[in-house]
Amino acid sequence: MSMNLTVSHRGQSYQLALLPDDTLAILQAKLEELTSTPPPLQKLLYKGKSNKALDDQITLTQAGLKDGMKVQMLGTTTKELDGMKAVENEQQKRERIMKERASKAPTKLRSTGSSASNDINYRFHKLVPLAHLPEPSSALNLLQRLSDDPAIRHIMQKHKFTVGILTELAPHEHPELLGLNENAGQQIKLRLRTDRYDGFRTYKEVRRVLCHELTHNVWGDHDNNFKELNSLLNREVAEYESSVQAGTNVLGYSGEVFEGPTTQLDAPQVLGGGGSGASSLVADSMEDRRRRALEAAERRLRLEEEEMENSCGTAGRSSVTK
Description:
- By secondary structure, the chain is α/β, with parallel strands linked by helices.
- Helix content is 43%, strand content 14%.
- It has two domains: 3-74, Ubiquitin-like (UB roll); 78-223 and 310-321, no CATH class.
- The protein is built from nine helices and nine strands.
- The strands form two sheets. The protein has a five-stranded mixed β-sheet with strand order 2-1-5-3-4, covered by helices on one side. The chain has a four-stranded mixed β-sheet with strand order 6-7-9-8.
- A hairpin with a 4-residue loop joins strand 8 (179-182) and strand 9.
- Helix 2 runs parallel beside helix 4 and helix 6 (203-215) packs across helix 7.
- The two termini are 47 Å apart.
- 27% of the residues are buried.
- Residues 89-114, 264-322 are annotated as: Disordered.
């Protein structure tokens, strides 16, 4: 009597007919032929179980598989794995170049007291996508974008945040969580993907969760201390980007203030006269608009943060003892 299984992978369904006494190794070999996913990278999910803790020489029946059962397979193809290795090699090359640059004395226009070594210490020291999930190279690119984000690097420098590993949460493993901070910065996990694995969440959503989890480097519980620091981080990110968009001088993550040349075109131009009063009115109007935009953003962030707290796995002991 044959055993019929339906295996789903990357939106494709495969109908397999096997014998109950066939081993998991036989099933995985057939799946490799169909999906180009090597057996060591295959993760089979069915009825609350997974094959990862099982010996591949046990039978399908012993593994808990039954006729007509639906199985979801997660895994990276050989081609994707090669692409991920290429991206990792490029990342290692970039880190090597950055370390070489940091070892040399930088040219500064004006320093606020931070040393070049801070740029090495206050950062994400390792980026780790989950190799068994789809498109690990795309996940690594998203983690790299977060790591290189000037506003994020700015607040990490300012508050002296260090994170050992920045990685991702698998939706099926932690469906209720958007983020997790282990041991106050030893490792931060973020939900990068949609629930159906058909894409990635928006960059701003993921970055907002990252600010939340960075706050857990200092405070474990979602108390008033946590809320004040988290609001401050979100406000500093918004102010940093607002300053960049406005073309004003900003404090960079390296602790240096880079000042561009000042010309007559930099000042507000007012038709009908060069009185200082007219110029200040224009400046005040721009500043008022910027202030109102920041206040509106803060209100929106507060509401979003309340919702985010319910999806954070770091509150209480997890931030300091996991």
